[in-house]
Specification:
Helix content is about 30%, strand content about 25%. It has helices at about 15-25, 75-85, 110-115, 130-145, 165-180, 210-225, 260-265, 285-290, 320-335; strands at about 5-10, 30-35, 40-45, 50-55, 65-70, 90-95, 125, 145-155, 230-235, 245-250, 270-275, 295-300, 310-315. α1 packs across α9 and α4 packs parallel to α6. It is built from nine helices and 13 strands. β3 (about 40-45) and β4 (about 50-55) form a beta hairpin. Strands 3-4-2-1-5-6-7 form a seven-stranded mixed beta sheet, sandwiched between helices. A six-stranded mixed beta sheet has the order 9-8-10-13-12-11. It folds into three domains: about 5-125 and about 320-335, NAD(P)-binding Rossmann-like Domain (Rossmann fold, 3-Layer(aba) Sandwich), CATH 3.40.50.720; about 130-155 and about 195-315, Dihydrodipicolinate Reductase, domain 2 (2-Layer Sandwich), CATH 3.30.360; about 160-195, no CATH class. It is of the alpha/beta class.
């Protein structure tokens, strides 16, 4: 029997609930799983009951690993308790966005840059969901041919905003079908049968860009270790319940054919190639939802540049884009004997 660890999951929304599922499904070596949130209650997740404990610094006593579920755009638990928990000897993995660009904090996708964890100070950040799936697909190709420029357009599901957004899409579709008036509360415009090129607020540092787009730019550079990599992003919210899709155009320093790209990606950890256009075989968010891999298809050569590829990248944003990646970071830390 190997060592077991007391684990805290901080937050019990969509991501926190998925973290609990992933911990059990992957048989994580947990001696205890403690759930912390804003108030005490009992929650049933995937058929298991959890007694939720109000989050406080004292609630981290005896905990070895804390997974902060976080919420994109929200401030809170990791800011208040993250570093304080580290001082108590807790290994923190934070899904929120507050510390991703902090120079003290490795920003990690385990299949891509696990070695960055060796410099950790007890706190590791999970990248943004849209960044995770893109760098998972691009990293093997970068190692093969050297990335020069990336242009990405995203088609992001409402689950990335949380349960309220999922409910808003459901209500909006019903209202549309029944011919009733619908007033959005979560989004600035109705999301059913619509596309909103607006995820998070305007960026102060990148005029004209949204916060989500800036995350994809700066996080990709940090994860791949290429500080001046040219990256352009346009992020849109679409009426899909779960699973983000991305159209990625990548330009490389060295030649790489579509055939070679398929070979490289097919052998890369965490990637599944789904690519047979003639048979209408390509990744879709519906098929990716609830599954672990990052799916890549529509792999083709971009003849408008010397060494370019176009890719279609799809993944479950709540699973690999948040919960699974966080658990994999903890698993990798154990494997690397960093705890």
């Amino acid at each position: 029997m190997g060592k077991k660890y007391a684990v805290a999951v901080v937050g019990i929304g969509m991501v926190g609930g998925e973290m609990l599922k992933v911990l059990h499904q992957r048989a994580f070596p947990a001696s205890e799983i403690r759930v912390l949130a804003t108030r005490a209650r009992t929650e049933t997740i995937d058929g298991r009951d959890y007694d939720v404990v109000p989050a406080s610094l004292e609630a981290f006593e005896g905990i070895d690993i804390a997974l902060f579920a976080g919420t994109e755009g929200a401030k809170g638990a990791s800011q208040e308790f993250g570093w304080a928990a580290v001082e108590k000897g807790v290994f923190v993995v934070d899904n929120g966005g507050d510390f991703r660009m902090d120079p003290r904090v490795p920003l990690v996708v385990p299949e891509v840059n696990a070695e960055a964890m060796r410099t950790h100070e007890g706190f590791i950040a999970n990248p943004n969901c849209s960044t995770i799936q893109m760098v998972a697909a691009l990293a093997p190709l970068h190692r093969e041919a050297g990335l020069k420029r990336v242009v990405v357009s995203t088609y992001q599901a409402v689950s990335g905003t949380g349960r309220a957004a999922v409910g808003e899409l459901e209500r909006g579709v019903r209202a549309y079908v029944e011919g009733e008036r619908f007033v959005p509360e979560v989004y600035p415009h109705p999301i059913p049968f619509n596309v909103l090129p607006h995820i998070s607020g305007p960026s102060k540092d990148f005029p004209g860009y949204t916060g989500e787009e800036v995350k994809m730019i700066v996080e990709t550079r940090k994860i791949l270790g290429v500080s001046r990599l040219a990256v352009a992003a346009t992020c849109a919210r679409v009426p899909v319940f779960n699973g983000h899709s991305e159209a990625v155009n990548a330009e490389f320093e060295r030649p790489i054919s579509a055939e070679r790209a398929r070979e490289v990606l097919a052998s890369a950890p965490g990637i599944e190639v789904v690519d047979d256009l003639a048979s209408a075989v390509y990744p879709t968010p519906t098929e990716a939802s609830g599954k672990d891999p990052v799916y890549v298809g529509r792999i083709r050569e971009d003849k408008s540049v010397a060494h370019g590829l176009d890719l279609w990248v799809v993944s479950d944003n709540i699973r690999k884009g948040a919960a699974l990646n966080a658990v994999q970071i903890a698993e990798k830390a154990i494997e690397m004997k960093l705890l």
